[in-house]
Amino acid sequence: MLASSASARAVFRSCPNAIKRDPFLWLYCVTQNVFDHSLPSTTCFTHSPSEASCTSSALDSLSVRRSNVFTSHSILRNCLPATARCMGGTSFEVKTDNDVVRFSIGKPLDKIGPSNNGNKKMAVTRRVKMSKKAKLNELRFYRLKAKKKMNSPNPQVRIIYKLEKAKRKEAWLIEKLRKFEVPKAPAETHDPEILTEEEKHYLKRTGEKKKNYVPVGRRGVFGGVVLNMHLHWKKHETVKVICKPCKPGQVHEYAEELARLSKGIVIDIKPNNSIIFYRGKNYVRPKVMSPPDTLSKNKALEKYKYEQSLEHTSQFIEKLENELEEYQKHVARFKKANEDATQESLVKT
């Protein structure tokens, strides 16, 4: 193998630059020296049907034109196997399929075309890349189309356009809010502590007098709220949770959610949207004080923004539907009045 590679380099140095740039002639020169045991001693190339010239070595055939090399594909097909040979650190592969000589340097030929295994049809889908100018033209077209609907003299066209746009936004917001749905962890079995009325009254009074509290703001219940409750329970038996801002009836939902996450006991719910929690007689602070099935602070804020936007969008859709219904009723009354006027004029005549 070393001798063959040395002979290949010697042939490559002895060839002129024009031959080095021609891959077919260079390949033929290398095969003549490396595989001289498999190639015949004399190889014929034909310029035309009437002329023929024979050469006895590869160096004598350097002046032959490129068209003559294409006629020697049958000889190369019989002599060279379709395997990769390494010469001088570079691998090249030769294949002779369908009477065509193909070779590649450093790349396997099997990856050139898609292959179908059995009855499976591999569908190659190509994304059509749009130019920047085409994208701008498309956006300009949709912008002009929307502007035409917004400035339409017909009020029904304007209302329907706003309604469709708001419904698209509502569907998009619902899809966004689905990403913030956290699967609830299975409830752990624990013995519920039974408190007497006297104990509840005592805990209620102590919870009102003490100043330690945990705020629940616009983010709602998330991991940080439960963490703060456990930190307060380190030194106090009770903690007050203040929900602000809070919708009517939402304070009871917060109380159930916090009781499930913190394993605390709800003592009292005040009219000013404050809840008093008791940690329990056999309280043991958990290792992970922030439950894993809760949102982080940033994600809770992002969820609140989407919820607020969804609420306003739903109200806007309801308002547009009422406007459209009133406009249709107005058009129906106007048509009926015109029909009555035409009938009266016909009766008078």
From TrEMBL:
Record keywords: Coiled coil, RNA-binding
InterPro entries tied to this protein: At3g25440-like, RNA-binding_CRM, YhbY-like_sf
GO molecular function: RNA binding
Coiled-coil portions: 310-344
Pfam families per UniProt: CRS1_YhbY (PF01985)
Ranges of residues in domain CRM: 193-290
Stated name of the protein: CRM domain-containing protein
Organism (species): Malus domestica
